[in-house]
């Protein structure tokens, strides 16, 4: 009876059934992007059973299994261990106004707010757009001098000066410009009346029109502190999180409230199994390469 049980636990048929069950159960979590689904006891139980099947299979056929296949088995077991470890992590979210800070986040696994362990501040929300077509009105004193049509990043000549259109800032819709005399930077200005141009500069500029911008990149400058003491700072965006103390900070949203105040949505992810999952895939890659080389060598001989 014991031999039959071991034979069944190490059988290829059981491995196929468990793999199909895990794959089918993973579909809802993949389509809904709901990470908490993978912490479900049923899913973890099936994954553990698949790992146990692989262990029994490896032990039972150890002498007959080649080194590349053993490495592949090890990689799969490391990945399974990493997936189980990930179930002890969590996903939390919080909206933070620009220039303010918070010390609590909403844990989706617990369905309530919890302390973050530090104070999270959003220092600045940054947006980068593809070059935007704009029309710039040039005034000399009170007289209209010219109308320039170009894209942000471009420049135009104005007498002895070269004017570069640096950026169009939103939501203020203010155009930033730099003025050069030859190769020397004379100063900068904007269409809201600010700037550092020398007194007596004869021209001023107005934003006449622009096309709807297309966002190229969005990120936030954030800082973490404890007891009013700075801990660390950096930037976070959708696919480039800021990492601190095992936590991954993603910028998932930038918007303004009805009063026009800008805020950023931050997703905080704790993922203790992440290193194991990547290590497991690396080990599996080594095993696959060795297996491919072994087969080529056999054919060559």
What would you say this structure looks like, in words?
It is a single chain. The protein is an alpha+beta fold. It has five helices and 15 strands. Strands 12-11-3-2-1-15-14-13 form an eight-stranded antiparallel β-sheet, with no helix packed on it. The chain has a four-stranded antiparallel β-sheet with strand order 6-7-8-9, with no helix packed on it.
Write the SSE topology:
Elements: H1 2-9, H2 12-32, H3 41-60, H4 67-86, E1 90-97, E2 101-107, E3 112-129, E4 133-140, E5 143-151, E6 155-158, E7 161-169, E8 174-181, E9 184-190, E10 203-210, E11 215-226, E12 229-236, E13 242-244, E14 247-256, E15 262-270, H5 274-300
Antiparallel strand pairs: 1-2, 1-15, 2-3, 3-11, 4-5, 4-10, 6-7, 7-8, 8-9, 11-12, 13-14, 14-15
Helix pairs in contact: 2-3, 3-4, 4-5
In short:
This protein has 5 helices and 15 strands.
């Amino acid at each position: 009876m014991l031999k039959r049980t071991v034979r069944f636990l190490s059988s290829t048929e059981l491995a196929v059934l468990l793999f199909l069950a895990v794959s089918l159960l993973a579909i809802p979590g993949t389509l809904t992007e709901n990470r908490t689904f993978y912490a479900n006891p049923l899913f973890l139980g099936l994954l553990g059973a698949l790992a146990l099947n692989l262990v029994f299979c490896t032990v039972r056929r150890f002498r007959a299994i080649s080194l590349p296949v053993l490495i592949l088995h090890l990689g799969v077991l490391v990945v399974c261990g990493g997936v189980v470890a990930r179930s002890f992590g969590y996903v939390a979210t919080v909206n933070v106004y620009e220039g303010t800070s918070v010390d609590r986040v909403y844990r989706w696994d617990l369905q309530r707010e919890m302390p973050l362990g530090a104070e999270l501040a959003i220092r600045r929300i940054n947006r980068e757009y593809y070059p935007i077509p704009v029309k710039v009105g040039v005034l000399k004193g009170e007289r209209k001098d010219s109308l320039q049509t170009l894209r942000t990043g471009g420049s135009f000549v104005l007498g002895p000066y070269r004017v570069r259109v640096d950026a169009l800032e939103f939501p203020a819709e203010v155009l930033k410009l730099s003025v050069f005399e030859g190769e020397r930077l004379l100063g900068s200005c904007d269409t809201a009346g600010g700037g550092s141009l020398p007194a007596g500069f004869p021209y001023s500029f107005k934003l006449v029109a622009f096309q709807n911008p297309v966002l190229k990149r969005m990120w936030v400058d954030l800082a973490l502190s404890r007891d009013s003491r700075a801990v660390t700072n950096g930037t976070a965006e959708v696919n480039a999180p800021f990492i601190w103390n095992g936590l991954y900070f993603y910028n998932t949203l930038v918007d303004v409230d009805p009063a026009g105040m800008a805020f950023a949505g931050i997703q905080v992810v704790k993922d203790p199994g992440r290193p194991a999952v990547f290590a497991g895939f690396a080990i599996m890659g080594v095993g696959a390469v060795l297996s491919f080389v072994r087969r080529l060598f056999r054919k060559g001989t």
